[in-house]
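WARN retry 2 of 3 for item q-0093 after timeout on previous attempt; input resubmitted unchanged.
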Amino acid sequence: MPSSVNPIAIIFTPDGRDAEIATSLLSETGIQSRAVANIVAFAAALDDGTALAVVTEETIRSSNLKALADWVAEQPAWSDLPFVVLTRRGGDAERNPSAARLSEILGNVTFIERPFHATTFISVARSALRGRLRQLEARSLLDTLREGEGRLQTALQAGHLGAWELDIARMSLTASDTCKSIFGRRASEPFGYDALLGAVHPDDLDRMQMAVRHTLETGRDYAIEYRIVWPDRTVHWVDIRAQLYRQRNTMVEKLVGVSSDITTRKLWEEELKRLNDTLEERVALRTAELKASNATLVDQVAQRERAEEQLRQSQKMEAIGQLTGGVAHDFNNLLMAVLGNLELLAKHCAGDPKTLRLVEGAMQGAKRGASLTQRLLAFARRQDLKVEPVDLKTLVAGMSDLLARSVGPNVRVAMALPDTLPLTLVDGNQVELALLNLAVNARDAMPDGGAVSVSLRHETLALTQKDLAAGGYVVLSVEDTGHGMSKQTLSKAIDPFFSTKEVGKGTGLGLSMIHGLAVQLNGGLKLTSTVGEGTKAELWLPSTLRQAEQGVTVAPNSGTGEQAPLRILMVDDDALIAMSSVDMLEDLGHLVTEANSGMAALELLEKGEEFDLVITDYSMPGMTGAELARAARALLPQLPIMIASGYADLPPGAGIDLPRLSKPYSQAQLEAEITKVVSARH
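OK item q-0093 returned
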């Protein structure tokens, strides 16, 4: 029912001058009023904004009062609308037998016998208005109370806090559903104080009951943490906070409070304490050993600072890696659009040597940018790797001439490659690039010439070490006789963009890229160096018993040998990438439909449009490429789908195994991947 800022009086006195007189008198008291012509309009006009109702007895006595009685009965709890009944027989039962019936129907009734004095009417009206205003104030207070209670419930739910009350006299516990769940009970289960005591861990029960007694005796807040045992016998921790509450004008006391599950926090505290105790034991043992050997004592707050510094360094590198990987991924998208458009532009400039030279220059710059993003992705451990069993001996031996040319005539290259080595699970191309980088770094560390030793060996770790899991490894070692690095320089060697070379002589991403590659391959990079003697870099790569896979040759399509035009659905939320990719596909002769979101693509498929292939970006808002692929396969199980992404691994839970197209890609790469997918389909 609507409410009004200024309550008004509703007048139902259709006979004579009663309505006119009542309106005039109410106006003198500052009460606005409105007269109605019949009982239906009278009942319909009543609402929360009505100050009082003025009626004549003879009018309503002869009317059907059902609608009016229903309205009176359905008033909210705070409302009791005052009715002023003008009568010629008074309001007592002896003179006016119908007064009792009107009082029963209308509830809050005041009878004024006519003729009446104006002062009497005004006094009754003002009294009725004051009562109604108090009712409206009570409604406002109730609304405020309900809103406050709603906000409290929202806060309790958001914080997963369970509310409870304990009646001290009866020791009767009332618990919310959340509170029950914290104690391992379902919402439908009874959970009284005896059940709560039974849930407390036996070793904590006395302490818990003592805390309750202390609060009851002193009135201080109740705050305690203790263990509880769930019905499934698992042990959990709870934090209980409460205050003693005494109801006004009574001796009834209650403990009113909240409970929260702190099991996870306690487990972390216990684990941290265990680790701290272990660390302190190691420090104490090491200190004792150093004292026994009369070595230099190393202060213990120092050892801890070094451990904290290592942790901060690890966290910093991880954060930089996350940021770098994201930037490289976005930059790949930009390069995708640049390279795609330049490649198509070059075809249109074939007869213009000057323009073609400018385009080629732009393409070279964009390709250098793509190479840089690959290094960034390698550091961030997000580059796209083709991991397979590789014979490192054959790989390294095959690079001997390239390494010799790369280091120049002043540097001797020696190789120590054993006859028998297990295969390794690596990306051969990336390992070649890493070895070449290490050799070039060694050359730069020996400006006056020297020697570089490249060797392979097999190592088995029985226990997990700092950065390496237990198991077998093939170690690729590159050692030089250069100027070496200090401890401070060595500690920063794998940091991204850190370089000891002159400005413009290096990106500072070489070692960080190699380190990222090693970690992504479940291996590691170890660096040792001595100033004036040289540096050794060891790339630890996991060995495998798997055999190298034989290449599978896909038979070409029958007919002319050219790829027949395909109906391709290209899905990418980035307009630049979508435009360049569509242009490349159309230049290859395909019929392309563009969709800028997963939902838009799915709508096309649901409408029955037919396609020979779907190429979709993975990272799209609303619906990822993986989600689109699953939905499309549900509609068309045989529809070929290709995922385009700049990341090595799709996020956990992607749950798809589809052909991948790594960004940025050229038109030739795009054509080759399409050929593979279509050939596999046939």
